[in-house]
Amino acid sequence: MLLAAGHHLTRPRPSVVGAPPPELGAVALRVPVDAEIELAAWFAPGQPGCGGVLLLHGLENSRRTLLARALWLRARGHAVLLCDLRGHGESSASRISFGWHERADALAALRELRARCPGERLAAIGTSMGAAALLYAARELELDALVLESVYARIEDATADRLELHLGEPARALAPLLLLQVPWWIGASARELRPSAHASSLRVPTLVLVGADDRHAPPRAAREIAERAPAGVAALQTFPGVAHADLHASSPERYEREVGAFLTRHLALPR
User: Fold this and answer.
1) Which domain holds residue 139?
2) Measured distance CA(178)–CA(181) in Å, rounded
3) H or E element at residue 4
4) Which of 263, 252, 264 has its CA nearest to residue 69?
5) Structural domain tally of the chain?
6) pLDDT in tens, 81-120
7) CA-to-CA distance for 141 and 109, rounded, in angstroms?
8) What DSSP character marks residue 134?
9) Tens digit of pLDDT for each residue in 239-266?
10) Phi/psi class of residue 131: alpha, beta or left (left: φ > 0; alpha: ψ in -120 to 50)?
């Protein structure tokens, strides 16, 4: 049963995403990561001096789930790049590694965004697994601002929390047995799958967002990440009444106020 669970958790999640909606004003493209992995993406240009934003989705999602954020960002004048992470949407099939190997996707996407936005300041917004990928890549990120949403701190806690949520508190004892499979399925140990351990490498202004009722990536995980970042780098914002859900869809006014002010401070080119 546990072997089947490991296979299920790491299997690819392909889906048909289709053409970019006309209102986004985007072009479809493919972003190469390495000889085997290529990401399906949409790029929408912005207004000069307003910067560019990379959007990375969470587990079992695709770039289409970030469309509302992209439309809001475009309305603000930002260029936007939305990518399907490996094993998701229309990107190359691959085992899911909860952000570990997906960090290479994040870096490749940022290179693509920088090439399309020369001279502009850049930000990235990652949700859940997309946020974990950005944290794993923290040492190599060349950004002006970073937003991390609903991200787990350590795979041990995330696994135990999910088992308890779906099977009850006694199921937490199964987490170590399930995690023993991790190296076999994705080539990384459970000890390596700790995004919070990489927070100390953050060097850009970072906004950490979490739902107060999130039981998959609870507030304690967000606090751990924010507290492990260098002094003055990370700020934590908690959204009352929100679970492990789309923060923008759940609290659009607050999300756009907080994230909009953050991006304005760090992306606008000096005049």
Assistant:
1) 2-267
2) 6
3) helix 2-10
4) 252
5) 1
6) 999 999 999 999 889 999 999 999 999 999 999 999 999 9
7) 11
8) H
9) 999 999 999 999 999 999 999 999 999 9
10) alpha
Looking at residue 30, which CATH number applies to its domain?
3.40.50.1820
pLDDT in tens, 28-81: 999 999 999 999 999 999 999 999 999 999 999 999 999 999 999 999 999 999
What CA–CA distances, in Å, run from 116 to 15, 70, 76, 81?
Answer: 26, 16, 18, 10
Per-residue tokens: 168: 């009850």
Strand segments, DSSP code E, in 79-159 are 79-83, 88-89, 122-127, 145-149
**Residue 57 and residue 29: Cα distance in Å, rounded?**
17
Q: Tell me the whole-structure pTM to 2 decimals.
A: 0.94
Are 266 and 205 spatial neighbours (Cβ–Cβ below 8 Å)?
Answer: yes
